[in-house]
Amino acid sequence: MDFDPADVRPSVFYQQMIHCIVPRPIAWVSTISEDGVTNVAPFSYFTGVGSRPPTLLFCPANNRKGEPKDTLRNIQQTGDFVVNIVSFALAKQMNASAADVPSEESEFDACNLTQKSSLKVKAPRVGEAPVQFECTTRQILNIGDGPGGANIVIGNVVHVHIDDAVVGAKELVDPDQLDAVGRMGGLSYCRTRERFDLNRPGS
Ligand SMILES: Cc1cc2nc3c(=O)[nH]c(=O)nc-3n(C[C@H](O)[C@H](O)[C@H](O)COP(=O)(O)O)c2cc1C
To answer: Any idea where the Flavin reductase like domain is (predicted)?
Structure first.
């Protein structure tokens, strides 16, 4: 099978992308609007960017009406956000937080999550999450307009919280304790329990 993306509908291209680019880490992004309504939603088009300066990115697409999702709108209004990492124990609440909740309602309440104040940003953290990255907005890039049009949000990581319970040898996060989940295609997820090591060439 091979195809030119220009010859298929965007929804078909999207489906192939999310089945091929796997597993994807999940940024569980918490924000607050200028009116003080808090929000949390998952985004699996997510990765780290660099460490000098400490940066990460995630990609909120426009909603079906072609408008920014609440997460992006809040970030445009307040200039900051928190990326929370999702452990297996939180997978159901993470999934529930992807529901289309009216802008004036908080997913923190709807999903029974603890809203914890951040140290350096206005956006709250998900208290239950084992890792929380407080971020200020570095840049927002618009990639496409209208429904499904993409945006890239690049954040400066200004503070990191790691639950001591997931810290292992050499002060680093222990993957078994973190028990992070990744997103596959369709409705599938994976856990991070099966791993293997490879020596770097020349080492
Ligand atoms: C695991 C998972 C990953 C998701 N990844 C993305 C993504 O990368 N980009 C996106 O625009 N929506 C993604 N979504 C859908 C959003 O979470 C959903 O549209 C949510 O309602 C947005 O919330 P908001 O309007 O409060 O910002 C994902 C949903 C799930 C369950």
So the answer is: 22-172
